[in-house]
Amino acid sequence: MDFPIEPVRGRFPALSLADKGRRRIYLDNPAGTQVPQAVADAVSRCLLTTNANLGGYFETTIAAQAVVDEAHQAMADFLGAESTEEIIIGANMTTLTYHMSRTLGRTLKPGDEIILTRMDHEGNVSPWLQLAEDLGLVVRWLPFDEKSWQVEEAVLAALLTEKTRLVALNYASNLTGSINRVKALTAIARNAGALVYVDAVQFAPHGLIDVRDLGCDFLICSAYKFFGPHMGILWGRRGIIDGLKPYKCRCSSNGLPERFELGTPQIELMAGLTAAVDYFSELGAAAGEGGSRRQKIAKAFEVSIAYENPLAQRLIDGLSDISGLTIHGITDPKRVAERVPTVSFTVDGIVPETIVRQMNAENIFLWSGHNYAWEIVHQLGIPAEQGVVRIGIAHYNTAAEIDETLESVHRVIAMLRQQRS
């Protein structure tokens, strides 16, 4: 079927906004997507009709508990989890990772080893680096291959030792867009006795996640990257998290997942989270899937991937025509399925921010900088204070928007070069 782009765009009010008569093109999606009307409605409805703390016996507190329970079930369906008890919802990915790293730190001792990648977002690096500093752990660095743009299995296998306790991986890069072979990497790490913690923040908007199939022990993502509110969601394997003792208040629940969810939950945002998952389910239903919510979500990703990948290649091909421009990531059309539609580039002699400022002035929204891909820019020798130009596609973008963006990139670079000459 053809992707229903106009009905999809019609569900996102922000896409119809204009500034002084000028349309907006949202290509800042790796930093956060727009939301469907249903997500905003769910947040508002929760605040207006079910606004209470949990644990009481009156109507609003009972309704609030139902909102919390529904959000955990929605994310269990979204991630393919076995149980809602494996779903931990919190403020954001970085906060949850810091919390879990400290909890896991109670099981570690000086001299234990952890492996971090040069490919990950800083939110899955700094928590472990600082834990290592606190506890006297040994950090081993796993680089990515600059030809494949992925973490290679053989390189990981060579780093593992009998002292390796944890491997922190990312599913997809927020700078290069490359997708790692997480299932294969996880199998190697777990066969060596290490736990595996997967950052799926950049993959979650663009592909179906199946935590049981991946075989990892933890996986984390952010709702605001897949059309939801600002929240982080951590899946933890029941057999692992059941034995962990998190930092928590003495009198708070010891149940799962409550003992990992500190303080009063963001109940209204959980309502929005369920609505975001249901958006995928409804997209799958519109594509002809009549099964479970999980099956509808899978169908939604099937049709959205088929729509996004040609847009990504259209962007890559158009950028590749510019002399002196380097795309940092996979460009081979035969490998487009091995990346998400996030494309970063630099141009010889031009600071990325100068390109982005000009394009932002044309209401084309995109980012420059290192984008917290701190290790990537250092491995590639890109000045961290400059970084890259990053363009990120979501399935509500159109071919016309990509063409207009490419025209802008060509024109802005030509103008900046003329100013330099």
UniProtKB/TrEMBL annotation:
KW Cytoplasm (keyword) present: no
Sorted UniProt keywords: Pyridoxal phosphate
Aminotransferase class V domain mapped to chain residues: 25-403
Keyword Transferase: no
InterPro entries on file: Aminotrans_V_dom, Cys_dSase-rel, PyrdxlP-dep_Trfase, PyrdxlP-dep_Trfase_major, PyrdxlP-dep_Trfase_small
Domain of life: Bacteria
Protein name according to UniProt: Cysteine desulfurase-like protein
Native source organism of the sequence: Mesorhizobium kowhaii
Lineage: Bacteria, Pseudomonadati, Pseudomonadota, Alphaproteobacteria, Hyphomicrobiales
